[in-house]
Amino acid sequence: TVGCVVLDSSGMLCVATSTGGLTNKLSGRIGDTPTLGAGFWAEEWIEESRSTPQMLYQPPTAASQLESMSRGDLGGILAECLPALAPYVPTAGQPQMYTYDNHHTPTQGKQIRHAVAMSGTGNGDTFLRTNAVRTAAAISRFSPHASLASAVTQIAGPDGEMQRSASDRWGKTGEGEGGIIGIELVGQKAEVVWDFNCGGMFRAWVDDRGSEKFMVFKGE
Amino acid sequence: LIKPRIIVHGGAGNITRKNLPPESYRAYRSALLSVLHSASNLFSLPDCTALSVATHAVTLLEDNPLFNAGKGAVFTRDGANELESSIMVSNGYRKRGVGCMMLRHVRNPIKLAREMLTREEENGGGTQGHCQLSGEPLEHLAEAWGLELVSPDYFWTKKRWDEHMRGLAEEEQEQSSSKTPSIEEREYLPQG
């Protein structure tokens, strides 16, 4: 199997994967490569900034104070007189997104775009049984502070979900084995991720400094 | 603007320093880095998209018999090639993701996946909005869309044929004897 994950300057992520399948597979056997969520996945969502967004609160200006007084809206006046209340007071026309930082102080969250894309390779039936790649994406999306890197390791890393799912009933070659490559974009910041639970994975990427890297094993 | 990024893979499995001699390591290294370099160069083009770059990279990998995709694909137990491909984007296309399977004559399955994803939007593609298609009906669409079709022996390579024969012989041997080789002793056979 071969695969590629790309992020372009517009922020779109794409994953492309192609394979001849499993050596000596039964005719008609379908693997994880063409199965959405098993061997490939890409998705994006809007979430509130995961950093404490308090710094986003802008103190009121004199003009806005006059404006809210002229509007006579008590909330606006309160918010301006008692800034600590500001985050509770919905500003007219603005969709209010409140998040709680770890002190449980409701703060107005800044919305950012979060996107992930991944390609899997290895024992296809294991990826199918665990719905591996979408599971990693879901961990990244629905766990408040899980990076895609940690999600990929939970699935395809040593002792990860894939390895645990390998039923030693059949003890077939390669059961539970595989690796995942991916890219995560949070706001404007992107990260290349990968992990695998077997001997090696042929992979090449451009790192944060623009250098081209190649590895097969870990710790090369 | 966001800084473009790219990563490629060429397979994973029971690869060890024992069953991957230095010359094979160098061959994979040179192949993957040249694909990465060629694909990264596309980022400088004005109309470059993640979809075009990813399709370009995987097309090059399919054309390289070193990898289990396109030319150099592994064989089924019946000695045939059944190719699969997929593409998915984080936004921009209604279908979002597509899967192609049971292909035997399409030279670059990844180009077919890209057509399946994009045609629905542009000119009613003829896929009825389906996300997964397989076999002859899909190959007829590939022909209608002007993709290159080849005869099945285009995909044949001696290396994969030998793996196919060895794999069958090994299975037979394991069934007849109780001893099965340890994972380290086994050859790295592409798992898909």
Question: Could you provide a short overview of the structure?
Answer:
The complex is a heterodimer of chains A (220) and B (192). Chain A has 220 residues and is of the alpha+beta class. Helices cover 23% and strands 31% of the residues of chain A.
Distance between the termini of chain A: 22 Å
Helical content of chain A stands at 10-25%
Any low-confidence stretches of chain B, pLDDT <50, length ≥5?
Answer: none
Low-confidence segments of chain A: 52-59, 78-82, 84-107
Rg over C-alpha atoms of chain B, rounded to the nearest angstrom = 19 Å
Strand order of the largest sheet of chain B: 2-3-4
**Which strand order spans the largest sheet of chain A, edge to edge or round the barrel?**
3-6-7-8
How many strands in all of chain A?
A: 10
The structure class of chain B reads alpha+beta
Q: What's the overall average pLDDT of chain A, rounded? A: 81
Biggest beta-sheet profile of chain B? 3 strands, mixed
Q: What is the number of helical segments of chain B per DSSP (H or I, 4+ residues)?
A: 5
Figure out the total of helices of chain A: 6
- Structural class, from secondary structure content of chain A? alpha+beta
Q: Which protein chains are joined by the largest interface, and how many residues does each one contribute?
A: A-B, 78 and 92 residues
The oligomeric status of these chains comes to: heterodimer
Q: Given the C-alpha coordinates, what overall shape of chain A results?
A: globular
Share of β-strand residues of chain A: 25-35%
